[in-house]
Design brief:
Structural class: alpha/beta
Radius of gyration: 20 Å
CATH topology of the largest domain: TIM Barrel
CATH architecture of the largest domain: Alpha-Beta Barrel
Largest sheet: 8 strands, parallel
CATH superfamily of the largest domain: Aldolase class I
Number of helices: 15
Distance between the termini: 19 Å
Helix content: 40-55%
Shape: globular
Number of strands: 11
Strand order of the largest sheet: 1-9-8-6-5-4-3-2
């Protein structure tokens, strides 16, 4: 097993060196979930925690960064949504508090904001759902990429990680690329490391950990769920676009379908303008994630989860989860080496 662990360490060494962590596993930034407690637990367990800024105001983000730094002396990052109206100020807050890595998500960052992050002494990480964007971001100065497949929880793109990895990993050179989406075991991570990735981002498995502040009902919903229960939000009419979000099917998602049907009908009958109908559809999920995560209303709230939710069988400490992921990775490498020797 010693040789297998050494192989694993070689495979993700570039990822560990880039993050400053012992293992190249990032915690996915999940709104309401990826806060001081979970982020510090992931970093303290040897991984790399990431604060989900979401819609936070600069003062609120500052408070969260300071609180996280009080809980861990290890590196962690902050995930910023590029469409946030106060993005510049949020970057300033991160730089003022010596946050080592800033993840620019939820859209394509500008060259100026990437330069600001780098000039301020932080590392800039971006998301690439396609090869063309990956190459564009590299030219713009991004220092690392996360490629996230549609199996992930929350807001997702249309392409699976299996396909994205084949499309992107052989063609992006010179910067670290981390994989994400549907990952729940260490042996799966190894398969992508061997394709050229330097590490992985996992969210769902950590959302149901002991250190996660998510409501007990939220975690129980994860334990009950199978992969097929984590579905993307359905768009009924192309005239009224719906941003695809993956979460557990519940009463809320069923009511969302009914609402869309009602709005389409009212628009067609001239009772509502197109703008008002679209607004009603968009407002349906306002506050829904908080209702599920914090209040525990898992029937009407948005229970964002990736398809790896079916592998979450118990609520465990983050350190145990991390240890299991590493053990699974080492075991699959050892088994492969053993098979190769037998064939030889």
């Amino acid at each position: 097993m010693t040789e297998a662990r050494e192989t694993l360490d070689r495979l993700w060494k570039p990822g560990c060196e880039f993050l400053g962590s012992e293992v190249a596993i990032l915690g996915g930034a999940m709104s309401w979930v990826s806060e001081r407690n979970l982020v510090s637990a992931i970093s303290n367990a040897g991984g790399f925690g990431v604060i989900a800024c979401g819609a936070m105001e600069p003062e609120r983000l500052e408070e969260e960064i300071v609180a996280t730094q009080a809980l861990t002396k290890r590196p962690f990052g902050v995930n910023l949504i590029t469409m946030h109206p106060k993005l510049d100020q949020l970057v300033d807050v991160c730089l003022a508090h010596n946050v080592s890595h800033i993840v620019l998500a939820g859209g394509v960052p500008t060259s100026a904001i990437i330069k600001k992050v780098r000039d301020g002494g932080a590392r800039a990480i971006g998301f690439a759902p396609a090869l063309a964007l990956a190459k564009r971001l590299v030219k713009m100065g991004i220092e690392a990429l996360v490629i996230e497949g549609s199996e992930a929880g929350g807001h997702v793109g249309p392409v699976s990680l299996t396909v994205l990895a084949q499309e992107i990993l052989p063609h992006v050179k010179g910067i670290p690329v981390f994989v994400a989406g549907g990952l729940g075991r260490g042996d799966a991570v190894v398969s992508y490391l061997e394709q050229g990735a330097v590490g992985a981002q996992l969210g769902t498995v950590f959302a149901a950990s002991q250190e996660s502040i998510a409501h007990e009902n939220f975690k129980k919903a994860f334990l009950r769920a199978n992969a097929r229960d984590a579905v993307t939000s359905v768009q009924l009419d192309e005239r009224f676009p719906v941003i695809p979000v993956r979460g557990l099917s519940n009463e809320g998602s069923r009511r969302f379908l009914k609402l869309q049907a009602e709005m389409v009908q009212k628009y067609q009958e001239g009772e509502l303008s197109k703008e008002d109908a679209q607004l009603s559809i968009e407002h349906f999920w306002a506050g829904a994630l908080r209702r599920a995560v914090i209040d525990g209303d898992v029937e009407n709230g948005s229970v964002m989860a990736g398809q790896s939710v079916g592998m979450v069988k118990e609520v465990r400490p983050v350190a145990d989860i991390m240890e299991t992921l590493v053990q699974q990775a080492v075991e699959v490498i050892a088994k492969r080496d053993h098979r190769v020797k037998d064939l030889g």
